[in-house]
From TrEMBL:
InterPro entries: YacP-like. Residues 138-147 have a biased composition (Basic and acidic residues). Residues 166-193 form a coiled coil. The keyword Coiled coil applies. Keywords: Coiled coil. Residues 92-111, 124-147 are annotated as: Disordered. This is NYN domain-containing protein.
Length: 435
């Protein structure tokens, strides 16, 4: 559509100067185009007019249609394209002739129709409207001609709208064809990618099958190894069970022999059963020690000799508790010293099987604690631990292996006089630290 020539041209097309018949023709053309316009493309100001009945659009909606033709460039351009397509099927590109019809208009077209095209395209239209002689009569033929003219105008508008729809459809078809080509190209690429992925998946499946077969073979080999190991374990367990039964049988036989022999000896000698041990029956502090001839022992510094003495049958170790603890752990409290000594003696008793008694200087209220993990713990009451050690040695029968752990020279002299072995405290500490 050609643009208006200048600002004066707009004044020529002012609503007050447009003849009523030209304005009515423009409104009818706009109403026909509005009826064929897609609702999505309808201007907001004309949506209510579009809902009118086709016969009432040009009359009831005349003012909105005329306003839209003047102010809405898009709607006016659509009406112009429809008019041009209704004339010869394609918009004209030539400039108008000052004396001729507007571009796109047929020279044989009625003057009003040519003026409509000129107004829509912004060309001079005043000279195209020549006053016509009034019709002498309005007979039936004239009315039929006028109706035919209106129908022809309507059909031309419909043709223009149809051609406009065809143009839009062709553009949409071209866009769809471009989109189709793009989608086909994407589909080809997708098929290529799918083939590549399928090949990769097949290769992965092949490797997975090989790995599965290898894992199955390894599992079978492991199951066979497990069965062999289970069988070997069963044989070893049976062999060990048989060996234990044989050893138990031999030990039981020897034990039964010894028990029978001891029972026979007890019956032969008519010995009463032993109820108390000598250390439990030590004489009171004020009782005089019994004088019994003994052999003197000897002092040793070798911890290994202590083990040899304690492994002798029915050996008894008597410990001067604080003398040993202060030799080995002088920087700790008395309670910790007692604990360290008793724990060490318990381990020594477990290793050698000897009877062990620990003597500590006590306060009033201390009592003997019997058999703390195989160790007898005694606290003195009214006497010193040295005196208690002397009474315990004196209470033992002659010939029993007695070992006294102390570094007190007076105690050593006294216990050796009763035939006991005296071991220095440092030797005992070294032995305990070696365990």
């Amino acid at each position: 559509m050609a643009e208006p020539q200048d600002g004066a041209q707009d004044e020529v097309q002012d609503a007050a100067e447009v003849p009523a018949d030209l304005r009515a023709a423009l409104v009818r053309l706009a109403a026909d185009v509005l009826g064929e316009t897609d609702p999505a493309q309808t201007p907001a100001a004309l949506r209510a007019v579009r809902r009118f009945a086709p016969r009432r659009r040009a009359t009831a909606g005349a003012l909105p249609l005329w306003t839209a033709l003047q102010e809405d460039e898009g709607f006016r351009a659509r009406v112009t394209r429809v008019w041009l397509l209704a004339q010869d099927g394609a918009p004209a590109a030539a400039e108008p002739d000052a004396a001729g019809p507007p571009p796109g208009a047929s020279p044989d077209a009625p003057a009003l129709d040519r003026a409509v095209g000129a107004w829509l395209q912004g060309h001079p239209w005043q000279d195209l409207l020549r006053p016509e002689a009034p019709a002498p009569r309005q007979d039936a033929d004239a009315r039929r001609d006028e109706a035919a003219a209106r129908e022809a105008a309507r059909l031309r508008v419909a043709l223009g709208v149809a051609r406009e729809g065809e143009r839009a459809a062709r553009e949409e078809l071209a866009a769809l064809q471009r989109e189709l080509r793009r989608l086909r190209s994407d589909a080809d690429r997708a098929r290529g990618d799918a083939r590549a992925l399928a090949a990769a998946a097949a290769e992965d499946a092949r490797r997975a099958a090989a790995d599965h077969a290898a894992a199955t073979a390894e599992r079978a080999a492991a199951a066979a190894d497990l069965r062999a190991a289970t069988a070997e374990r069963a044989v070893a367990r049976d062999t060990a069970r048989t060996g234990r039964r044989l050893a138990e049988t031999r030990a039981r036989l020897l034990l039964d022999t010894l028990i029978d022999a001891a029972g026979g000896l007890r019956a032969e000698l008519a010995l009463p059963p032993v109820v108390d041990l000598p250390a439990d029956l030590a004489a009171p502090a004020d009782a005089a020690p019994a004088d019994r001839p003994t052999s003197r022992g000897r002092s040793v510094d070798d911890p290994a000799l202590l083990d040899d003495l304690l492994r002798l049958p029915r050996a008894h170790l008597l410990v001067d508790g604080y003398n040993v603890s202060k030799t080995g752990w002088p920087g700790t409290t008395l309670a910790d010293q007692r604990r360290l000594v008793v724990d060490g003696m318990a381990a020594l008793a477990a290793q050698t099987g000897a009877e062990i008694t620990c003597c500590f200087d006590g306060q009033p209220g201390h009592r003997a604690v019997a058999a703390v993990r195989g160790v007898r713990v005694l606290f003195t009451s009214g006497e010193t631990a040295d005196d208690l050690l002397r009474r315990l040695v004196a209470a033992e029968p002659p010939g029993r292996v007695l070992v006294v752990a102390t570094s007190d020279r007076e105690i050593v002299r006294d216990v050796e006089a009763h035939g006991a072995w005296a071991v220095p405290a440092v030797t005992v500490v070294e032995r305990l630290r070696r365990r």
